[in-house]
Each structure stands twice: as structure tokens, then as C-alpha cells.
Automatic annotation (TrEMBL):
Name of the featured protein: Uncharacterized protein
Organism field: Bauhinia variegata
Amino acid sequence: MSIFFFLKLKTFGAVEAPERNRNCRYTLNLALSLSRNAMEGKNISSDDEVIAKMLDMGFDYSNIVIALRAVGPSIDSAVEYILNGAGRNSCGASTSSSSKFYGGKALRKGDLCLSRSSSQVRQSSILDHFQSNDKTRESKTGDVVDVLSSSFEVPPCNVKAHKEPSSDVDSDHNMQSGLHIVNSIEEFDIGSGWEQKVSSVLQKHFGFSSMKSFQKEALSAWVAHKDCFVLAATGSGKSFCFQIPALLTGNVVVVISPLISLMHDQCLKLARHGVSACFLGSGQPDNTVEQKAMRGMYSIIYVCPETILRLIKPLQKLAESRGIALFAIDEVHCVSKWGHDFRPDYRRLSALRENFTTSRLKFLKFDIPLMALTATATNRVREDILKSLGMSKETKIVLTSFFRSNLRFSVKHSRTSPSSYEKDFRELIRVYGKKKKTGENKKVFISRESDDVSDSSDAGGISETENVCPSDLDDDQVHYTEGDISATCSRNPDDSVKGKELSVEYLENDIDIFQSVDDWDVACGEFCVQPQNVWKLCDIVDPPKRPEERLRLRKEPLEHGPTIIYVPTRKETMRIAKYLCDFGVKAAAYNATLPKSHLRRVHKEFHENTLEVVVATIAFGMGIDKSNVRRIIHYGWPQSLEAYYQEAGRAGRDGKIADCVLYANLARIPSLLPSHRSEDQTKQAYVMLSDCFRYGMNTSCCRAKTLVEYFGEDFGHQNCLLCDVCVDGPPQMQNLREEACIFLQVVSGHYGRGYDLNCFYDGGRRLGEGPSLKMFARKIREQFPKFTTTDILWWKGLARIMEVKGYIREGDDKTHVQIKYPEPTEMGLKFLESVNEQAFYVFPEADMLLSSKTRKSYSSFSEWGKGWADPEIRRQRLETMRLNRKPMIPKKYRKRKANNKIKPDLRSSRGRLAAKLTKHK
Ligand SMILES: Nc1ncnc2c1ncn2[C@@H]1O[C@H](COP(=O)(O)OP(=O)(O)OP(=O)(O)O)[C@@H](O)[C@H]1O
Ligand SMILES: [Mg+2]
């Protein structure tokens, strides 16, 4: 048996022989699957390529050369050779062969086949997965003990029976030798040097020199055994807050995460950095992993909320044996019904607080801390989370600024249909497109079926917006056919899902429509909102760029980097990806119904920078951590600003300038994506959609400020200087007093003067009795000829402004994205009756500007039938005739006349006419 595997098996202590073999196989499988992943899609033929690849994987050069001499230029065999020693295929490689290979020094860490130099951090990935458990350390008595064994044998120190901290493990000696595992979180208190230990763990495992200050804050809460709520920007590094405790203590950290793909991704990343981790849940193919995890074989256990509820008892045992350092709840906004991604099972996670306390588990010295983390949560959502999870009153709140000073936000009007692709994607094609539309040699990632997708969403031009709310979606969310899917992978012969290895993708839990929810059990206003000052900013992630720098960057071209386009429907992912591929852009569609092998490949190529554009639904979601994403394009209205900001936050994680563009049909009111929702949920979903709609309609307030303040943060900067509003400036203010008065006059006229304003709130509204905004707009057109051509779109914008000012309110008890049944308020009536001719200066909203820019087609007026009797219609008809009049002088004469060369021929009737006209001029 190889010395390496001997060591490994030794570290597993009480593991039975058959189990050992399984573990060995498992080690090898992981390593091989990693190597396969690294090689996927490439035909490695030469030694050089294999060497380069294996160096990249972190293997030592001399070992690679030896292995290649022995097995030839095959990466799999070489990896196997190195891991097993002398080319043995089984895990039971003999000690002798191994001794030969490692020169008899295999027991010493530095001599293992994997280099541990910082330049080869990834090298540790394969074996450190096990070495983290294999590491030896000196005990107080100087004995060399096996850390993993000790973590089984020596109960962890948050267990009452074992209070004594083993200070020796903190010694410089161990720090130098890369051993930072200490046995008790008791040893940590602020000021006792834990920060330095964290820094060296960070350096060792991840190559980072220091913690960010919000990470420090979160960890200091954990060190003090406190619950902690971390609300930090997307991509700021929240994962480290819960990964570090596992590395510091040797105890297990349990992480609750909503998506299998996210867990899988993080496990692979951790394995690469030498941290043992596993994920549990429906996507875990190996049913021994759960058992192993419960026996403490992994430092970090990722688990979905559905599964953890079943594992309470085994986890209590684990807390007693190896010890649990922390429960981390990632993407914790999923707890709240007021959030954008509610998952009912997240709500039941209060079981963690209930079952892991000192009162429940007598061996604990203190409650196992909870750490809740998210990037997007409004004040209301935060309160809901704290309450729902039963987090302690002393929960530490770690809040970073939402402001990302390198993101350029903008909103553009677009029909977001195939007719607008050319205009909207021209810039992308210019940047990425390599050739003209040829249809040849294009990178096909999409269904051929999508060729004949018709433009069903194109019906609603600006002139047709009177019928509010035809969906932007040609929604095929639910009915995507098998045929379509299989066609998608027709060019990928290797698409069939292979054996169930750890490295295979498991994405079945991923969703790209909202989860259905059936336990909407918290009534509105049930929880009292804590005073605002509880949510103080403790830190900012990266200091925002200074105003001068932002000014410089506002029109700077983007560096090269990939783009993600988010669309609302699966069909559009296919359609747009195909469109871009046709122009030579390396684009791929991504949605939950596509084959997993395709999705895996998209992930891989996206991360390897071989894919330029991913066109995705929200399934390409949480946890996408790529630093150089240069553009996030939303093509169609998002469902909430939380979702929008989270997705937009995937841009520019390297701190360099990045664009976040929202293309939305500003002439249409967005609609909710279909989902099962209770009445309350529907209401809440409309509120969120409405906030998003208003973000798009805004023309005067800095976009970054709007977003940051939406999350309850005081922006603190005047404006971002980078968004479209800051760069282009707001539109000119307009005095709309006359329009506002007329509107209020018509609305209040309907209800009659002196009507009881409160009657509508007496035990519920009078449903459906008031006229709609559309009817009011028609009335105005009839009564005020001056406004005959004013579009409903314009009145909608005005209604929103007046609602915000408090002059009108929604008369329906349903929530709408935009006010639908306006009623006057007392303030509105006062405004109307005020004798003073006060000006009413406002910034016109995006739809108002749009409607004034666009000439409305006459034929769409129902009043057009009134004919010439109506002065406004007469004026417009004459205008049309003037514009449409054909030139009376033939072109050739006009030209000649202009040149003064030819006089009209008076002999012909045409010439005489021309002469006559010239004379009259
Ligand atoms: N202290 C640090 N120094 C430098 N880089 C760091 C540090 N901490 C984290 N990072 C890097 O930040 C990136 C994002 O980390 P992570 O995935 O944890 O972000 P996140 O906040 O969880 O994002 P999301 O909201 O998308 O889940 C990672 O690539 C990580 O390596
Ligand atoms: Mg994260």
C-alpha cells in the first residue's frame, strides 16, 4: 500500500477495511474527475501539453516527468500513477512502490507529490482534500498526532467535557508548517491573535493577504459565539465568513444553500484549495457521502434546507463527536416571503436554533452560532429573517454598502423582441462578432427549433399601448417540449450524463421560475420593524471610487470580458443565443430545461473565457462568481429590484468598470411570471414588480442611488456620476399644472363633489366601481380638444407622479404595477381647489417622454370618426395632407430649375404648369 494511502487510511482511524478501500477509490475518483474536468473537450496528445496541464493542476514537475515516462502522454494515467504510486491502478498500491516513488519520504508533507508553493495553490487541491485531514500536528506533549483522528478522538472544545485549549497548535512552528487547525473556538477572543491566524489561513488556502473588514466583523461575532447576519454586496466574499471557522477549528461548518449547482461549485472550489467539503441533498449521487459527513469526514458540509431538517439527530451526534463550529445559512433572503426568491423550507430552519442550544444539548458550552448571509435584503426582509430563524437578540449585524462604484447602470427602451435585436445587439456584435452573418462555422449551442420562433411579443408598439398589460412574455416557461431540448444538444454527442461522480453536474434542483409557495403564514405588519439605526453600515466592501475617478470612467470603453444577458423566458434564451451565434458571437443559451451536460459545458466555457455571451434565465443564478464579467444585460423587465441587483452585481467583480443595462419596453406595464402564489404573495410580488417598473420609469434620480436606497441604505454620495441619468442629465422640468388640474377635475368629477373620501376604506373597498385610468384618459380627450392626441401612456406617467405626490390613490384593493383605478385624495382635492395658480413643475417620466416623442397613428383614435367638425382633428388632417402631398413639379424640372439651366417648356402642359407654379412662388 502506498505510503500516502497508508497515511490517509490511518487518519480515518476507526474506518473498517472495506470502507478504507471505498475511501481510497473515492480519493482517486475525485482526483481523476478533476483531471478529467480539466481536460474535458481537449485531445491531449503531446507530452508538453500534458505537462502543462498537470502543472496547472498543481502537480510537481519532476513527478509529472516520472509519471509520463512510465505511462506515456495520458493525463488520466499520469494522475493515477502519481496518486497510486508506480502506476498502480488500485488504491492498494504497495508501500514499496510508493517508497520508491517518493524516495521513502512520503510521510513528510513537503515531499508528497503535490507541491505546496503558493504559485501552485491549485496543486494542493486534489490531495489536500485529504491532507487537510492527514495533517499531523504536535500535541502538548510533543507527540505527533493525527489531526483528523484527534478530532474524532479528542472531543472538540465547545463540548463541556473538554475545556482545555491546546495552545501548542497555535505555535509559530505550526503556523509555519501550514497547520492552523486549533481545537477550540474558545481560544479565540478579539485581540488574542485570531485575526493573524485567519490571515495566514487565507494566505495558505486561498492566496489572499488579508481579510476584508466586513469578514473580520463577521468572524469576530463567531469568535464571540454570537449569531451574525451578514448583508454584503454580491461578490464581496461572504463565503469566507463561514469557510474560515472550519479551517480554524477543525470542527465542521454546516452551510445551508438553496441550489445544488451552487453547492457543487463551492465544493469543487474548496477541494481545489485544499479544504474537504461535500454536499448533501437530492443531487448527491453517492449515498455514502451523507454517512461519512455525519461521521465528521468533511470540514464543510453543504446541505439544502429540505435535507437538513431530516438530519437534525445525526447532526446533534456530530456536534458531540467532531463538533460543529457554525451553521451558515447562505442566500438567506430565501427565508423571507418579502424577498425575491422565497423557499418555504428555508422558513423551517428555525429548527437549527431550537435544536443546537446548550439547553437542548448538555455537552455544549454555548449555542452553536448561526450566520445568515445574503447580498439582497430590504429592511423588511431582514427583520423577517431574524424573526423567522429565531436568531438571538444579540445577533451581530454586519452590513456593507450596497454601492458598487464601478457599475454603470442604464435603462433603454426596447420592444425586447426580435424586431429590436438588430438595434439592441449591434454593439455586442461589434465587440464580439468575428464575421458577417454566414450561418457557417457558427458555434451552435441552441436549438434549430428556435429558427421558426415567431415574434409573438412584437404586437404592442407604442401606439398600441392602450390595452395595458399584454405580457412581454410569449411564455413557454412550462411547456418546453422534450423535442426542443434534445435538438439543443444534437451537436454534442458526449451529452449523455455519465456515471455518477462527484464532479458531474447536478442541477436538477435549480429553478428558473419562482418557486411555488403555499405557506404564506405571516400577515402583513405582524412584525415590528426595528429602529433604522440597528442597521448601521459597519463597513464597505471596497472603498467606492472617488468622484474624479468616476467622472473619468463614465465614458471609458469596457475592457474585454464576457457578457450575461438575462431574459424572462426560456424561448428567448434560445432565440437570442442563436441570433448572436449567427453573427459570429460565441454565445450559448442557458435555462433549466436544457440538458445538464450542456449547462455544465456553458459553466465551464464561461469560466474559461471561451464563451463570450451567455443568454440565460434566472437559472444562471446565485453564486456565479467570475471576476471579469463586463456586461450584464437584462432584456425584459426583471421581477424585482432585488433580483435585478443581485444579477447585475455579477458584473465587474474585479473592480473594473462594467455595464449593467436594462432593456425594457417602457411602453408596456410588465407582468408577473406565472407561478403559484397565494393572494398575499401576489400582492407582494406586484409591489416588487412595481418598484422595478418605477426604477425603469425614473428619469431624474441617479440609478445607483435609487437602488442603494431601495435596500434601505443612506446613499451618502450625491450621485454615482456613471449611470445614464448622471451622464445624460435629467430631462427638462415641465410645469404640468394645467394637465394635473384637468386630470384631477375629471377624476373627482366622476365621484361628485363632497363625496366621502373615507367610504372606500370602510371594511374594504368598493371593488370595480371606479372607472379605470384608461376611461379617464378617454374622457379628457373628449372634453379637452387640446389633449386629443395625448397618449394614455402620458397620462399613466402623470398619474404615477400624482400618486407619489399624494393627490390620487389606487381605488382597487388589488395591487397593480401601476395605478389603475385612480381616486382623488383629500390632498388632491385641496390642490384642485387652491386658488393660487401654483406651478406644478415635475420631471416627465420615461413613458411620458416616449409618448411625446412618438407620433400617434390617427387611426387609433376612436374620435377620428367625428371627422372635419372637430377642430383638432381637422388641424391634424390638414397637417397630414400637407406632409403627404406629392411634389407637383417633376423631379427633373426641379433639379434643372435649381441649376438654372433649363426653362420650363411652355409648349407642353407640364411645362406650363411648372412655369405657373414658379411664378406663384
Ligand atoms: N479577503 C479577500 N481578499 C481578496 N479576495 C477575496 C477575499 N474574500 C473573498 N475574495 C474573493 O471574492 C470573490 C467572491 O467571493 P464569494 O463567492 O464568497 O462572494 P459572495 O459575497 O458570496 O458573492 P455572491 O453574493 O454572489 O454569493 C471570490 O473570488 C473570492 O476569492
Ligand atoms: Mg455567496
